[in-house]
Amino acid sequence: MTLYRKDGMLLIYKLGFVGGSIIVFTVIFGFVAFDNILRLGIRDQTALRKRNEIRKIYLKLPFPMDFRVYFFNVSNPMDVQNGAIPILQEIGPYCYEGTGFSVEDNVDAKNMCISPIRKEKALNQSMIEYIEKIDVVDHEGEDSLTYSPYALFKFSEERSGSLKEDDVVTILHPLIIGMVNQVVRDSPPLLSIVNKAIGLLFPHIESIYLTAKVKEILFDGISINCKVSEFPAKAVCTQLKSKIPGLKVTEDELFLFSILGPRNDTVGKRVKVSRGISNSRNLGKVLEIDGKRQLSLWGTQDCNTFKGTDGWIFPPLLNPEEGIWSYSTDLCRSIGARYVEDAVVKGVNVRRYEVDLGDMEHNIQDKCYCPTPKTCLKRGVFDMSKCMGVPIYATLPHFLRADKIYSKQVKGLSPSLDDHIINMYFEPMTSSPIEAHKRMQFNLPIAPNSKITLMKNISEALHPIFWIEEGISLEGPLLKKITNIFLVIRVVKIIRWLGILFGISIIAYGVLSHAKKQPDQKILPLPQDAPKSHRSIANFANSNLDRNETDNKKTRTILNGHEFDRY
Predict the structure, then answer these.
(1) Would you tell me the Gene Ontology cellular component terms (predicted)?
(2) DSSP-H helix ranges across 166-249
(3) pTM of the full predicted structure?
(4) For 127-167, what is each residue's pLDDT tens digit?
(5) What is the β-pairing status of strands 209-213 and 168-172?
(6) Would you list the domain boundaries of the chain?
(7) Is the peptide bond prior to 93 cis by the omega test (within 30 degrees of 0)?
(8) What is the DSSP string of 56-91?
């Protein structure tokens, strides 16, 4: 009896210890330690350490970015000369082949081509943009690195479908209108000289519009006849050469002006960012641009301060309410993306962020971007003249989220949130952009001007010229690396609950086994010569055991009358 009790209790103690240990280990590792280990691992692997793969991807994208240009073709240029409202068209169709390119609604699945419903909507040139950071220098003491951005554009005939670089479009003449607006703002008395120069520099011009090939507008350049000897033309050409970045000069003194030429196959200003090794919260944070710790363009120190990253990498483990900030070299200002909602993209749980250009007319934080302290643009419009050196205005495509007055000044626009908003889908743990679209429309203000022959009778408008879209969409091995992280997390979640259930099962097994092996006990009748008091007690005990015997059909005799008497 004593031996059995010791062995049985020893077994239940062992099983209880094993089961309890499994539960404690599972709780500590699966519910507490794993999350901390995972976070430490993410912070370590997302930092721009020389050994990390993310650094290689950051310095040179292993895939080209999708770069698209949409032109606003003007169908009534001569009517506009007489005061009519500009009618804008985006002409198509355009087909996209290969992975990584989204084909929207109304698509012929067989030919991967946009259907006729879309043909009247878009003149879209699809190009490939190769991004690389060169001349990289690490600063160990500051935990930072400095690089020079390099971009190369390559036209993709395959992805542009039927579109060719030789397509001819009619758009607002960016050089003439930009030049006039600059003089109106800075030196109005010189307008008569500019008016004479326009006829000399562009001898066959009949309106404020430019009709040219796409490749000439974007990269090859529109010729400016600066070899004339007349003073007005020489004076304007001198100013153009000093004011317009990337203006090409040929051997025979022809100037070539293009929209994207200055960005193509060129090296940008030096950028210094934090590597995020000592503090992951600072990963990618812009520290300097062109050797300067802050800007000197805007009205307040807050607006002149670099906020956020360079837009190519973001700190991990961000909270939704923090938003995502980045510095835009195109706008010379920091832009904040606000959290909108949770979503699922390509099987990954992501957060959707959106960006607009604010409202400097009513938002106190944006008033520092007003062109003058007393002149603020309306909602959704940003003056880029301080950044680019020419008076050009940025908006979202089709005046999305801009003041309604602008869309009333032209015809043919159809703003769409899905097609025209700047959006980003970030995986929240690693802050990896699963999908992102950077979109920007470029516009020039036009207004009647009695001193400029081509602009005497035109109506006032903020006139769209073109808009661009830079897109990124993770595919293949890079996307798989993200999904593998969540596969591990799901497996650990399953294992930790299985561990708890397994520990409980072991403890329960020990308790049940001990209960089943407990023996039944029966007290035998006392001899006839036993005292009467003892006999009555024995009869009572045996009567109860007999009832148990009927139920269990299993008894064991362990005491006789004399033993009970001794007990």
Answers:
(1) cytoplasm; plasma membrane
(2) 174-186, 191-201, 214-215, 231-243
(3) 0.79
(4) 666 789 999 999 999 999 999 999 887 777 766 767 788 88
(5) antiparallel
(6) 1-61+496-518, 292-442, 522-566
(7) yes
(8) HHHHB-SSPEEEEEEE-EES-HHHHHTTPPPBEE--
